[in-house]
Amino acid sequence: MASLSQSGYNLIKQLEGYRLKSYHLKGEAYWTVGLGHYGPDVIPNKTYSEAEVNAFFNKDKQRFEADVNKVWTSDMPKGAFDALFSLAYNHGNVSKTAVGRAAKAGTWKDREKFTKLWLSSYTCKGLLTGRRRKEIAYFYSTDINNIPLSNPSPSTNNQTYA
Predict the structure, then answer these.
(1) For 18-64, what is each residue's pLDDT tens digit?
(2) CA–CA gap between residue 48 and residue 45 (Å, rounded)
(3) Which pLDDT tens digit goes with each residue over 114-159?
(4) What's the CA gap between 69 and 35, in Å, rounded?
C-alpha cells in the first residue's frame, strides 16, 4: 500500500495552511484546525497543541491513503499518489469521483484529456483552480522534490511530517 510522501505532506501544508487555532468557514457546519482537519470533533475557537493537530492529521491521513490506494497504480508518475491524496483531502474522497475512476482506468496516460478532467473538477466556481493546477503539475512530475510551491503563509510553521 502506497503512502503520502514528505513532499506530499509539504504540498498539503502549502495548500491547506497550518493553524493551531480552530476557525470557521462561512456556510460550513463544522470548524477546521491544523492542516484542514474538519469535523464535529473540532472545538470552536480552541487553540490546539501541535501534538493534537498532528493527531488529527495522522487520523485523516490513514483514511485518505486508503481511499487513494483504491485508484492509484504503481505505473503512475512519482507525484501521482500525493496529488490524488491532495484532491481527496480537499474534496473528501477521490475513489468515488470522475477523476478517481479515470485514474484507475488509465486515462491519466492521456495527459491532455486527464488534465482537462482534473482542472474541471471540484473547483468551487473557480476558487480552487490554482490548487487544481498545482495538483495536476504534481501528478505528472517525475521529480517531486523540485516542484515549485509558493512560500507557506506566515501562519504556518516549519514542522516536518512524522
Answers:
(1) 999 999 999 999 999 999 999 999 999 999 999 999 999 999 999 99
(2) 9
(3) 999 999 887 787 788 889 999 999 999 866 556 555 533 333 343 4
(4) 21
Active site positions, annotated: 16
Residues 6+ apart with CB under 8 A from 65: 1, 2, 3, 4, 85
Inside any domain, residue 133: yes
Dist. CA 1–CA 3, nearest whole Å: 7
What is the count of structural domains for the chain?
1
Does pLDDT of 88 surpass 50?
A: yes
Cα 66 → chain centroid: 14
CA-CA distance, 34 to 23, in Å (whole number)? Answer: 10
Task: Specify the residue for cell string 501521482.
Answer: 80
34 occurs within a structural domain? no
Helix runs in 50-128, H state only: 50-68, 80-91, 98-105, 111-119
Residue 141 belongs to a domain? yes
Q: Position 118: which residue type?
A: W
Q: Which pTM value belongs to this model? A: 0.84
Phi, psi of 23 (to 5 degrees): -140, 160
Does 93 fall in a domain?
yes
